[in-house]
Amino acid sequence: MLKVVILAAGKSTRMKSDTPKVLHDIAGVPMLRWVVQASRALSPQEIIVIVGHGADAVREEFAADKLTFVTQEPQLGTGHAVQQARAALQGAEQVAVLCGDVPLLTAETLARLAETHRDSHAAATVLTTVLEKPAGYGRIVRDELGNVQAIIEQRDLKPGQERIHEINSGTYIFNGPELLARLDKLTNTNAQKEYYLTDVIHLLTGDKKPVAAWCCEDAREVLGINTRKELAACDKIARSRVVEQLMQGGVTILDPENAYIEAGVKIGRDTTVYPYTAIHAGVQIGERCEIGPYAHLRSGTVVGNDCKVGAFVETKNAKIGDESKAGHLAYLGDVTLGKDVNIGAGTIVANYDGKKKHKTEIGDEAFIGCGTVLVAPVKVGKRGQTGANTVVPHGKDVPDDTIVVGAPARVLKKKA
Ligand code: UD1
Ligand code: CA
């Protein structure tokens, strides 16, 4: 039986943010959510998240995720963080420790780490990688036979050790009892005056307990995020993975470098996404559609088959029926479009009256003329039609098979 501990209590001074670091988005999804999802590959009995800085916000974001939260206050280091979970870890045969700020780790790599741990019968197995520029990371010190001896933090390196390129990813699997027996032996006699989890490795090898390592080939998976620059770099990598998966599923993406598609977006076969298009997490698009260039599909957008959402069209909470088209320059918010609807250029669904958002429905085969403003809440019936520059006021529904025109300006009232 295995339990997961995710470390997410640290302050992350270098982000210079009021938002806890682990809640910053990677491809539209909070960093910590990626780690939680990957950790499920280990089929854990329990996922324990150590929180501290911004703890309330983190608990709130993950309220529905069946996680155990343990508070670390004050934050005295990664070893001290795991100490706080001591009670929750009693009886766990294995304990996997992950960092909340290492979001690109894949489920496959975690599974390989677990396999290595099982096959090696080690007391602990560390996930490592080799970096051209290892500065800042803890280094893996091995003996002449290649066995892992210790992990030394950057600031505690002895002369020569800075040349070690194999680094600690901050991801480990421990035998539960071996870890628990050593947690209380950690001291803070180091450069940062912190209780380092990494010192457990040295305590184990000192007791002649074998420590194994799995070296991850793709170093990008274990990149840690400490700065906005690293956030942007990881975000880009995560989005490129999303785009690759979509292309594998039969989507044409004309310029993958310039498609901004977040995680969890579903797109059907033979749909083409043109450049400079942003598609937010959770959006669904059917088959054979044309999306973009310069389209912005926000949350709650569901597009059917054979649709077009063209240049400078923004959608939000928009359900767009099969064969419907919004070719250019439109805002479609809180709206349901039937089948084969045509939205003329410059159409605006005015969904917000300054206080509340309202809904709009447009029936099958409706034809909305250029520059129409539909003031929500309003309905356009089946085959309903509006002339160019028509303003349809709220509540003045357009009946089926009816054409409406005009937008006479008139005094509404004098402002006080
Ligand atoms: C840590 C490792 C280092 C490794 C690197 C990989 C230690 C001592 N060092 O260094 O060997 O190369 O990760 O990215 O473990 N945290 C808490 N409570 C604390 C301190 C930290 O929960 O008191 C959390 C942080 O929020 C973060 C994670 O632990 O998610 C790692 O902490 P951080 O301070 O970023 O450690 P590094 O210096 O990066
Ligand atoms: Ca870090």
CATH class of the largest domain: Alpha Beta
Bound molecule kinds, no repeats: uridine-diphosphate-N-acetylglucosamine, calcium ion
Count of DSSP-assigned helices:
8
Question: Can you give the helix content as a percent range?
Answer: 10-25%
CATH superfamily of the largest domain: Spore Coat Polysaccharide Biosynthesis Protein SpsA, Chain A
CA(first)-CA(last) distance: 70 Å
CATH topology of the largest domain: Spore Coat Polysaccharide Biosynthesis Protein SpsA, Chain A
Architecture per CATH nomenclature, i.e. the level-2 architecture of the largest domain? Alpha-Beta Complex
Mean pLDDT: 96
The percent range for strand residues is: 25-35%
What does this structure look like?
- The protein has 416 residues and is of the alpha/beta class.
- The chain folds into two domains: 2-222, Alpha-Beta Complex (Spore Coat Polysaccharide Biosynthesis Protein SpsA, Chain A); 242-414, Hexapeptide repeat proteins (UDP N-Acetylglucosamine Acyltransferase, domain 1).
- It is built from eight helices and 31 strands.
- It has helices at 31-39, 55-61, 78-83, 86-89, 107-120, 176-183, 199-206, 228-248; strands spanning 2-8, 25-26, 29-30, 46-51, 68-71, 94-99, 124-130, 139-142, 148-152, 166-175, 211-215, 252-253, 259-261, 266-267, 272-273, 277-279, 284-285, 290-291, 296-297, 302-303, 308-320, 325-337, 342-343, 348-350, 360-362, 367-368, 373-375, 378-380, 385-386, 391-392, 403-404.
- The strands form five sheets. The protein has a 17-stranded parallel β-sheet that branches.
- The chain is elongated and about 85 Å long.
- The N and C termini lie far apart (70 Å).
- The mean pLDDT is 96.
- Residues 101, 224, 226 line the site of calcium ion (CA).
- Residues 7-10, 50, 72, 75-78, 80-81, 99-102, 137-138, 151, 153, 167-170, 196-198, 224 line the site of uridine-diphosphate-N-acetylglucosamine.
